[in-house]
Amino acid sequence: MSHRKTRLPGLLPEQLDEEQAEVYRAIAAGPRAAGPQAFALADERGRLRGPFNAMLLSPPVGLALQAVGTAVRYGSVLTARIREMAILTVAAHWGSDFEREAHEAVGRTCGLTESELAALREGRSAGLDDPAEQAAVRAAAALARAGELTDEEYARAVAALGERGLFELTTLVGYYATLAMQLRVFAGEHKEGEPGDRAGGEPDLAPRSDVRPAG
């Protein structure tokens, strides 16, 4: 379980300028808000939750980023089960509570069982029978872990998902990894066993004075 120490205050709708309000509307009144919602996009005062609040900091980037999220969730050839299993694979790799809690809720509406959710949460094989689902979860795990696929993994994924499906899967993995990173930076999420704030605050990149240059 990760811990949270939110660094970025939530912005109220009435505090937003017009550019920020456009991003807000795209998130809160777009496809994510259509139909039954498995998790709340905003709190009781209308402040965006999770990674969405940070998107208001840069309206041009935030608007484009949320559009990628809309495309990978609502314009993809991937099935809803594959999509949610891939998201949960990314959430487990990054230790993101928000992604896990939100998309376990969505996954249940897509037919994911509690045993499948538990396996994904713990990074175990979910015992899937469908070849496309097996290939997608394996590819998502490899992409989250290594950022690439071997030739064998690529061939297996294309055979099961098609080239378009694999392109959409890689985009989905990258998008949710970006959100997980934003949650770490702005919402203070950290994977269990990882340090919170680094001691001293800055990485040690300066050359040591007691080391003589080579040569």
Write structural notes for this entry.
The chain has helices at 18-28, 52-55, 59-74, 80-94, 97-109, 114-121, 131-146, 151-186. Helix 1 (18-28) packs parallel to helix 3. The radius of gyration is 19 Å and the shape is globular. The protein is mostly helical and 215 residues long.
Topology pattern, helix = H, strand = E: HHHHHHHH
Indicate the overall shape: globular
Helical percent range? Answer: 55-70%
Mean pLDDT metric: 86
Count, helices: 8
In total, the number of strands is 0
- Measured on Cα atoms, how large is the radius of gyration? 19 Å
Residue fraction in strands = under 5%
Helix and strand composition category: mainly alpha
Could you give a short account of the major beta sheet?
Answer: none
List unreliable stretches of 5+ residues.
197-215
Distance between the first and last residues' Cα: 48 Å
